[in-house]
Amino acid sequence: MTGKIALEEHFGSTEPDIVEQSATHFTADAWPAQRARLLDVHDQRLRMMDEGGIELSVLSLLSPGIQALWDPAVAVDWAHRLNDHAADQVARRPDRFAAFAALPMQDPDAAIAELRRCVLDLGFKGALVNGFSQIGAEDTAVYLDDPRYRPFWSAVQDLDVPLYLHPRDSLPSRGEIYEGHPWLLGSAWGFSVETGTHALRLMGSGLFDEFPRAQVILGHFGELLPFNIWRTDHRLEVAPRGIPALQPMAHYLRNNFHLTTSGNHRTPALLNALLEVGADRLMFATDYPFEAMRDATEWFDGLEINDADRAKISHENARRLLKLK
Ligand code: ZN
User: Fold this and answer.
1) Separation of 39 CA from ligand 1 center, angstroms?
2) C-alpha of residue 15 to centroid of ligand 1, in Å
3) CB of 257 within 8 A of CB of 287?
4) In this predicted model, what pLDDT tens digit does every residue of 228-279 receive, in sequence order?
5) Selected catalytic residue, list 107, 145, 169, 287
6) I need a labelling partner for 199 at 20 to 30 A (CA). Which of 70, 127, 162, 206 fits?
7) Residue 140 Cα, ligand 1 centroid: separation in angstroms?
């Protein structure tokens, strides 16, 4: 089907040179082609969008991106330049591309200013943050439930734009469970555990009691959360352990989160997410170029779901959430 809007579509850049961050996810043989796909916007990417019926791709920087630049001054500078780069790409084909802002969470005030600049001046549709940020030293991890970010979340709610919480790996110093098993890291498993836990921290912190209109997008059908949310709430009822949140986790999942199909072309996973959060909170995404765009579009087009739900997931929900014309 045509008219799809794709929400997790990554790009890289050589100026400043951030594309090399992704080299670790590929073999030396595969990297040159992947690097080229990350740097390309208007050539091969656009052709594949045409072939797969994707009308609009919302571009976002690769992971961990700005979040790994632990010197706040560098993070602020690179975020500004990379957002300008994204804005230039969108300006060439505003009918086919939009963008999420990369944000220097190392400096919360600068992150607010950059979000406002990107949304209000450059027309970005929200932000994509790659999990925790390293701040001031390499071996640090600050999550978005940290009290220093409450003014940032206030800005997110006031601007009425979504924040896409995208995966990154745990720091080696905090990933004992992965030691000796490097295959568990990255998108095979570690990404979802790290990001799903981060999302639960946001819910449990009471963030959405303070900012009930804030909206977060999770990729990969919710980073394991739809499958386990009933059990999490069930056990928290028995042993709440001082959780600040006023509502069950499922309340926040159904009121403050949207989930995308990125990189998870699995119909039982979609049906589970559909039953937990409903068709109004699912959206299409591919995770290109870390996934093949064609795999995502062919799986989605072949799904046996009703036409109303297909339209919601493919474009209607995104159009409403991102306020697209
Ligand atoms: Zn991704």
Assistant:
1) 15
2) 21
3) no
4) 999 999 999 999 999 999 999 999 999 999 999 999 999 999 999 999 999 9
5) 287
6) 70
7) 22
29 is catalytic: no
What is the distance in A from the centroid of ligand 1 to the CA of 313? Answer: 18
C-alpha angle with apex 127: 167 to 252, nearest 5 degrees? 70
- By the 10 Å C-beta count (0-12 exposed, 13-18 middle, 19+ buried), 140 is classed as middle
Q: What is the pLDDT of residues 88-146, one digit of tens each?
A: 999 999 999 999 999 999 999 999 999 999 999 999 999 999 999 999 999 999 999 99
> Cα(244) to centroid of ligand 1, in Å?
30
> pTM (2 decimals)?
0.98
Cis peptide before 64 (omega within 30 of 0): yes
CB 246 within 8 A of CB 298: no
Which residue, among 169, 187, 168, has the nearest Cα to 179 in the 3D structure?
Answer: 169
Taken in order of first residue, the domains within the chain and their CATH numbers are: 4-322 (3.20.20.140)
